[in-house]
User: What shape does this take?
Amino acid sequence: MSLWLSGGADAPIAIWLASPLVVVQFARMDARGATPFVIVLTAALLPLLVSGMPPLAAVSLSLILAAQVSVTVWVARVWLEAGVPEVRSPEKQLQYFAIVALAMPLLFGLVAGPLVAPLAGWNTIVTIHDFIAGHLLGAAIMMPLAICGGSLLTNLVANRSDRTAFAQAAIGLAVATGVATLTLNHPLALIGLSLLVVAFVRPLEETAFISSICGMIAVVIASLGLVPGFETMGAPFPPRLQASLSLALVVPAFFAIVRARGLVDRRAKEESDAVFRRSMEDSAIGMAILDVCGRIQKTNGALASMLGYSIDELEGMVLADLVHEDERASALDQGRQAIRDRRTSARVEKRYLRKDGTQVWGQGSISAVFNAETDRATHLICHIENVDERRRTMEAIAEAENRWNFALSSARQGVWDLDLRKNRVYHSAIWKEMLGYGESELADAPGLWLQLIHPDDLDIAIGMDRANRQGSNAFFEAEFRMRHKDGHWIWVLDRGRILERGPGGSIIRAIGTHTDITRQKEAQERLAETARALRAEKDRLRVMLRSIGDAVICTDAEGRVAFMNPVAESLTGHRLETAIGVPLADIHSPLDEDTREPIAAVVRDAGAEGDAVQHRAMLVRPDATRSFIRQVASPILSSDGEYEGTVIVFQDMSDARAVQRQLAHAASHDSLTGVANRSRFMDALEDLTEGRDSVFGEENHMLFIDLDRFKLVNDTAGHVAGDALLKRIASTMQDCIRSSDILARLGGDEFAVILRGCRSMEAEAIARLLVQAIGRLAFEWDGREHRVGASIGIAAIAAGRDPADIVADADKGCYAAKAQGRGTVCIHPRANEPLQLSA
Assistant: This one.
């Protein structure tokens, strides 16, 4: 057909119908290897030779056509990863047409022109042009039929309305093509416009098929020489119609492909929107579409139900405002991260706030949607799964596990779990630690524990294991020794329960605990040894009680003396022989050391612990002599807590008491004069200022006494003489003051007196009396008489004042008295009063 339409072998072939058709067919057949090449070479060579083409030219052209078809099939398969593209893939159809009708003809046309034209006697340029244009025109006519014909026929058979519309369009365009080709000087413009109209109203496959029909009608009419204004130039088909007819057929097909792509995209978008909308509405997970500011634009019922709002209430709210304030910042960062990283953020659990103010746990992720043109984020899609129940369940499980683990760990209970289905046994870390092993040091073999049993206890363990396997009791307990990692043996209490039995009562699953009872076993052994020792010591106890240095008296439940050791006999003045059976009060009746009230030595009201009662007491013997004692009285209780008597242990503290009194006196008195020392004086002064000593009233005074000319005695007669003089002066002053007053030596030749309950005039009189008494004192040493005097400062003792300030005021008064000529008394004034001096 192509040779006939092109005028045979005398001119280049103006239209190629076979090549596009066989390319489509070979692709549909998935022909590979040399098959396409051999078939095309055979099919093309014979017609070319019959048409009268020179043999060498015919062979060359046949080889080129066969190579073109083979390469086209291979390139299309590799490029499109398929043979013939589907009708519903417009972009792949366009690529397929470009490969078959343009790229490959252009490539092989540039080869065919220089090679075939000289051999066939054709013009090289014309040959290249006709080869390329002829393939384009043939592809425009045949490829739509070959690709779309089958699917179009199936659709038309199934759909009557489409069949009618297609028939109307096809007949109308066929008539229009025929009329335009026969009557118009430029018919192809009208044909192209008509096909464009069809391309915008009919599907792609119908447009392609109608385009092929119109093209074939135009080719037939042109080949008959019926197109006005076109000369055939020796061939039935005018070569000048190649490009224009190809353009008239290809352009509408291109627009149909573009329109089909748009329909496919729109349909896909509608389907995608419908699927997304349905998925969002029916999803059990909360979903929300947000703007880039985080405001909810659309949400679903799952999220509304989770947060307790209606969908209308949620839309317009900012999602971050529904997040707990402690996690709100991280929620905002999660949205910014989704935009910044251009990927879905990690799933994060957060607390969300329900409408009623309660909190609910949700696990959410956010992904960003970007505008393809501006490359800017337009929306955020948020998925929030309600994990509140799971979270609380996990927290409860974790709390329970922690509680049990803590309890087992605190009780040092090692857990074992035997599972014979898996032929393994689990040992907890505490179990392994009891034996000195780390967590990964022991295998999980079921028979491992038997290897660690003490040889002497192995029969016990094996017997227990056998009894458990053969018996029906679910619980078991045994004690045996197991080898520690360092080689020593520990006692273990094994308690367990059988959880599952197999056929015949065999154990399938069991669980239990091991408790280290080594200390208990050692304690039991010690108790046994103690019992034996007690029996041995019982006979020695009485001897020991008789020989100890403390006094011991035992009574029975009625309070009668049951035993006394020799020390107790000595301290009480009673013999054991006469004291046995006598009430304790007649033998031992101590008095309270301070109140001299009797102390009950028998302890009857002791608690279950048998608390001891301690006393410091005074004991009066029958001969009226006294001893100070320290005693401890403890009840004797039976194993049932019943009172059976009292044990009284006491010591003679008379000597210690005397020493204690001496030490107390030395701590508060001057060692030379025997009067109070400075520490005792300051304590007494502090008691007055802080109100602890108010027995004699609130008006109290202090005298600060400094001896005059005492240094002369020390310098002339020596310090021994000075010490003797200080003793005389202290004794003289003690005679001059009242019994309620406190005389103290502050240091050196300085003394002080606290006059309690003494008014100012009385204090001044006592001070003058002291000055006169000291002045009249004649002290002789080594035959020489020495006389001294005294200057006294008086200060009032006011409540709340610092004792040091009072001493300082009295000292100032004494200094003023010395300044006025010594041997005088000066009262330190209160505020705004002048010093008062008296001789």
In short: The longest strand covers residues 489-501. DSSP finds 27 helices and 24 strands in the chain. The mean pLDDT is 80.
